[in-house]
Amino acid sequence: MAGSIRASGRHEGPRDGPSCSPYGPAAPAKPWRPSTSLATNAGAAILILALGLAVGAPLLAPHDPLKQDLGNALARPGGAHLLGTDNVGRDVLSRVIWGTRISLVAGFVSVAMALLTGGVLGLVAGYSGGRVDGLVMRAMDAVLSFPPLVLALALGAMLGAGLTGVLIALGVVYTPTFARIMRGQVLGIKSREYVDAARALGAPAWRIAVRHVLPNAAAPMVVQASLSVAFAILAEASLSFLGLGIQPPAASWGSMINAGRGYLQQAPWIVFGPGAALFVTVVGLNFVGDAVRDALDPRL
Predict the structure, then answer these.
(1) How far apart are CA 249 and CA 89, in angstroms?
(2) Taken in order 155, 151, 107, 174, is the CA torsion positive or negative?
(3) pTM (2 decimals)?
(4) Helix residue ranges, H only, 32-162
(5) Domain map (residue ranges) of the chain
(6) Contact between 75 and 84 (Cβ < 8 Å)
(7) Gyration radius of the chain over CA positions
(8) Buried-most residue among 18, 195, 283, 295 (CB within 10 A)?
(9) What pLDDT, in 10s, does the model give residues 60-72?
(10) Which residues make Cβ contacts (< 8 Å) with residue 217, sequence separation at least 6?
C-alpha cells in the first residue's frame, strides 16, 4: 500500500486549508476596517470642503453676507435664497459660507498659538528640571484649575470682543495641555542613550533640546493639535453665542445661532444652517484627528 502511494506520487491528505500550499501555511489576511476607512475619508472630504469654502467665500457666496433686505426678512428656503433669510433679510447660506472662514481661522490659529507656546514651555521645563520645571508647571496648573469655558469668557471680557481677543483667549486656555504633554515626553527622552552620547560629545544644551529631544517628542503634540482644532471651533462658537466673540454684523456661526434663537418656531432655518455647518465641520475634524492619531501610533 505504501509502495503504491509512493509510486503514484499522490497525497491523500486534506486538499483545502493552509497545509495544501507547497510554500507552507498561508499568511492570515489583514483585517479590513471599513468603518475606520470610511470615517477617515469622510473627515478628509469635509475638511477639504471647509477649506475650499473658506478660501473661495467671495466667489462662492451667492449674496453679500452683510446686505440687509427688510422687505424679504424671514423668507423661507428656496429660489434665490437656498437656506432662507434671517430676521433682517440677509442670505443665510452666504453668511454660513463666510462664517466658515472665521471658524477655521479661530480653530487653527488659536491651536497653533497654544502648540507653539505650550511646546516651548514644556520643552524648557522638562529639559531644565529643578526650579524652572516647578515654576512653569505650577503656572500651568493654575491655568488648568479654571474651567476652560469660564477662563475663555473671562479673558474674552478682558481683551474685548473680536477675533483677536478670541484667538488669544483660546490660545491661553489650550496652552497648559500642550505644555504638560511636551514636558512628559521630554522627561522620558532626555535620559535616552543618544541624548547622553550627544551630551558626552560636548553638544550645548539648546542644541540637544532642539536637534535630539524636540523631533522625537513632536508626534504626540501633532496628535493633540489635530484633536484640539474641533474643540477650539466649538469654543469660538460658544463665545460668539454669548456675545464675547465675533460681533455682528460679521458672519460667525455662534452669533448667527444666537440671533436666530428667538425665531426657532417662526423661522428655524436661521439656526439650522449655521448649526448644521458647525456640527458637520466638528465631526469631520474629529475624524481627521482620529486618523492622525492612528497613523502616528506605533502600536498600530
Answers:
(1) 12
(2) positive
(3) 0.81
(4) 34-55, 57-60, 92-128, 130-144, 148-159
(5) 83-296
(6) yes
(7) 28
(8) 195
(9) 999 999 999 888 8
(10) 123, 182, 185, 186, 189
